[in-house]
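Renewal narrative, Specific Aim 1. Our central claim is that a sequence can be written position by position from structural information alone. The example that follows is taken directly from our test logs and has not been curated for this report. It begins with the C-alpha cells describing the chain, in the order in which they were read.
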C-alpha cells in the first residue's frame, strides 16, 4: 500500500520546524511531553488505516443516496464515525475538566492530516462537528453546552453549518431565512439552505444545524443576522431525540468528488416552523459564525494539503517503479528503459508537488501554532501578535493551499499519464475530491478582497509589520547559515520588500478609487501567498541545514528539504514579479471590460 502520510514529515514540522515539544513549558501542558503527542498521532494513523482508508474508493463508487427523504450512505461510514469518536478525537483540544485531552491545537490539526489524507470525504463529519462543538462552547448558554456538547463529542449527533441559500452565496448579509420568536423562548425558523455538508445523516441519532437567519425588524446587512441551533430531532426531557423538527432534506446534490458524504439542500419550516434556540446575542450571529468559518478555513487548508500530499506520495511511488523510455544521451534502443524518476522533467513535476504539498502542510501547522500562541502564550503581547498574524494569514492558508493543492494533484495525474486519467488509479479521485476546496469557505476572490480590503490595514497595518518582521528574521538566519542559503534569502528579501511597497500603493489608491484598487485583489492574494510560502520554505531549509543528521535517511531527508526550497524560491517565487507589475500599473482590463462584449 502506497503511503498516504509520511510520519517523518509530520515529525519534522511539529518538532523541528515548530518546536512543539517546547509547549510543555506552559502551565496548560506541564504534564505533557512528546511521548503523548506521538501516541495521539500513532492512534490517528491506526484509525485511518483500519477504518478510513479501506472505503475511500468504495465510497466514491457508491455515492450517497437520498432514499425516502433521508440519506443512505456507505455502510463503512458508521463504524468509522464511531472509531473517531471513541478514540477521543472529537474534542482533543478542550480542557481535561470538560472531557477533552487538553492537547495543543497544532497536535489536533496534525492528527486531522491523517484523517483527511486517508478519506477526506468521510472526514467532513468530524471536521464540521468539531467546529459546532467549539461554537457552542464559545457562544452557547450553559444549558446548551450541557445538552449538546456531550452528544456531539460522543457521536450521537453530528454538526453542520447552514449558511448558503439558493439565491445567496458568499453575500451572507442578503440571506432571507427568517426567525420568529416564541413565548417559550424558542424561535421558529423558515427558509431554505443549500450546499450543506453532512446536512442529513444515517450515522448518528441526530443532526445539529447552526443556522443563520434574520429576526423580524432586524436591520439590513450583517448586523441583522442571528445564529440558531436547530436540530433535526427535538430532545425530550432527558435530552434524547424524540420529536421530528420541521427540518427536511430537500435533496442530495450529485458531486464531482467527495461523494461518500452528503452535500444537501435543506428546508426549514415547511409547516409550523423549525424550532431553534438563539446562540449568542441577537443580531450578532454572523460574528459568532465567523469563529467556525475561520476554523473551517484552516481546516480546508489542511484538507487541501493532505490531498496534495497523498497525490505526491502516490505519483512518487509510481514514478520510481514505472520504466519509461531512455535518457536523451542514450541512443541505444536495445538498452533497458529507465524509471520515470530518471527523467529531469518528471523530477520537476515531483519537485513541484513536493513544494506545493509540503509547503501547504507547513503553512497550515504554522497557522495552528499561531492559534495556540494566541490562546496560551504566557506573554500577553505575544498573544496579541499571534492573533493579528493568524488573522492576516488565514486567507492565505485557505486559498493558497486549495489553489496549489489542485495544481499538485493535477501533476500527479500527469506523471501517471493515461493511467492517471482512469479510475483504476487513485490520483484522479484525489483531484476530484480536491477541486471543491478553492470554492469551500469562500472563493479566491472573496479572500483576495478580505486580505487587501481589510486584513493588511487592521490596527494600522500591525499584522503586515509582524509578518515582515518574522520573514526578515528567517532571512537573517539564512544569511548566517552559509552554503547557498544566503542567495535564497536575497531572493525572498527582494520580493518581500516589493510586496510591502505594492501593498502601500494599493492601500493609498483605495482612498481614491476602491473598486479599481481591489479589482486585482485575487492577484494580490496569490503574490502574498507566494512570498509567504517562500518564507516557510526558507525557514525549513535553515532548519534542515542546521540540524545534524543522525542517520543516512535523515541526511537524504534534509537534502530534499533544501532542494525543494531552492526549487520553490528560484522557480516559483519569481512568477510573482509579473503579477506585481500588474498590481503596480495597475492593469484594469477586467474591470473595464464591457460584459455585453463577451
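The sequence written for that structure reads:
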Amino acid at each position: 500500500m502506497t503511503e498516504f502520510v509520511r510520519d517523518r514529515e509530520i515529525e519534522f514540522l511539529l518538532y523541528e520546524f515548530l518546536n512543539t515539544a517546547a509547549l510543555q513549558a506552559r502551565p496548560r501542558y506541564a504534564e505533557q511531553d512528546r511521548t503523548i503527542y506521538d501516541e495521539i498521532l500513532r492512534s490517528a494513523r491506526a484509525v485511518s488505516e483500519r477504518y478510513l482508508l479501506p472505503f475511500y474508493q468504495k465510497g466514491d463508487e457508491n455515492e450517497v443516496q437520498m432514499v425516502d427523504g433521508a440519506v443512505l450512505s456507505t455502510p463503512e461510514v458508521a463504524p468509522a464515525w464511531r472509531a473517531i469518536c471513541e478514540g477521543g478525537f472529537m474534542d482533543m483540544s478542550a480542557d481535561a475538566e470538560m472531557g477533552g485531552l487538553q492537547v495543543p491545537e497544532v497536535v489536533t490539526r496534525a492528527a486531522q492530516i491523517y484523517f483527511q489524507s486517508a478519506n477526506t470525504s468521510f472526514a467532513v463529519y468530524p471536521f464540521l462537528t468539531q467546529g459546532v462543538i467549539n461554537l457552542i462552547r464559545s457562544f452557547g448558554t450553559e444549558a446548551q453546552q450541557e445538552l449538546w456538547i456531550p452528544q456531539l463529542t460522543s457521536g450521537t449527533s453530528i454538526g453542520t453549518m447552514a449558511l448558503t441559500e439558493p439565491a445567496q452565496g458568499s453575500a451572507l448579509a442578503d440571506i432571507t431565512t427568517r426567525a420568529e420568536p416564541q413565548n417559550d423562548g424558542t424561535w421558529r425558523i423558515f427558509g431554505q439552505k443549500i450546499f450543506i455538508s453532512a446536512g442529513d445523516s444515517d450515522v448518528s441519532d441526530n443532526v445539529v444545524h447552526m443556522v443563520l437567519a434574520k429576526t423580524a425588524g432586524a436591520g439590513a446587512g450583517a448586523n441583522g443576522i442571528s445564529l440558531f441551533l436547530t436540530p433535526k430531532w427535538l430532545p425530550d426531557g432527558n435530552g434524547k431525540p424524540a420529536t421530528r423538527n420541521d427540518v427536511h432534506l430537500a435533496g442530495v446534490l450529485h458531486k464531482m468528488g467527495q461523494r461518500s458524504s452528503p452535500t444537501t439542500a435543506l428546508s426549514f419550516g415547511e409547516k409550523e416552523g423549525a424550532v431553534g434556540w438563539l446562540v449568542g446575542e441577537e443580531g450578532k450571529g454572523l460574528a459568532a459564525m465567523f469563529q467556525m468559518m475561520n476554523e473551517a478555513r484552516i481546516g480546508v487548508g489542511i484538507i487541501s494539503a493532505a490531498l496534495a500530499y497523498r497525490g505526491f506520495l502516490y505519483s512518487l511511488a509510481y514514478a520510481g517503479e514505472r520504466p519509461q523510455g531512455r535518457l536523451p544521451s542514450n541512443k541505444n534502443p536495445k538498452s533497458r528503459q529507465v524509471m520515470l524518476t530518471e527523467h529531469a522533467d518528471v523530477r520537476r513535476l515531483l519537485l513541484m508537488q513536493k513544494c506545493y504539498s509540503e509547503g501547504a502542510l507547513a503553512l497550515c501547522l504554522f497557522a495552528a501554532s499561531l492559534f495556540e500562541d494566541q490562546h496560551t502564550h504566557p506573554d500577553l503581547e505575544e498573544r496579541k501578535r499571534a492573533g493579528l498574524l493568524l488573522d492576516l494569514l488565514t486567507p492565505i492558508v485557505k486559498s493558497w493551499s486549495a489553489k496549489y493543492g489542485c495544481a499538485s494533484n493535477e501533476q500527479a495525474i500527469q506523471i501517471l499519464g493515461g493511467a492517471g486519467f482512469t479510475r483504476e488509479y487513485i490520483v484522479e479521485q484525489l483531484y476530484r475530491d480536491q477541486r471543491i476546496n478553492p470554492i469551500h469557505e469562500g472563493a479566491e476572490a472573496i479572500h483576495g478582497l478580505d486580505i487587501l480590503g481589510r486584513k493588511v490595514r487592521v490596527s494600522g497595518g500591525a499584522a503586515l509589520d509582524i509578518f515582515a518582521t518574522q520573514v526578515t528574521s528567517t532571512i537573517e538566519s539564512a544569511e548566517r547559515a552559509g552554503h547557498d542559503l544566503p542567495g535564497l534569502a536575497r531572493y525572498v528579501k527582494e520580493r518581500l520588500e516589493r510586496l510591502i511597497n505594492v501593498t502601500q500603493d494599493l492601500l493609498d489608491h483605495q482612498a481614491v478609487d476602491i473598486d479599481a484598487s481591489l479589482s486585482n485583489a485575487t492577484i494580490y492574494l496569490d503574490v502574498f501567498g507566494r512570498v509567504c510560502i517562500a518564507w516557510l520554505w526558507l525557514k525549513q531549509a535553515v532548519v534542515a541545514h542546521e540540524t545534524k543528521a543522525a542517520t543516512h535517511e535523515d541526511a537524504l531527508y534534509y537534502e530534499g528539504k533544501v532542494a525543494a526550497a531552492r526549487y520553490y524560491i528560484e522557480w516559483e517565487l519569481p512568477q510573482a514579479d509579473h503579477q506585481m507589475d500588474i498590481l503596480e500599473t495597475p492593469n484594469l482590463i477586467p474591470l473595464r471590460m464591457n460584459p455585453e462584449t463577451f
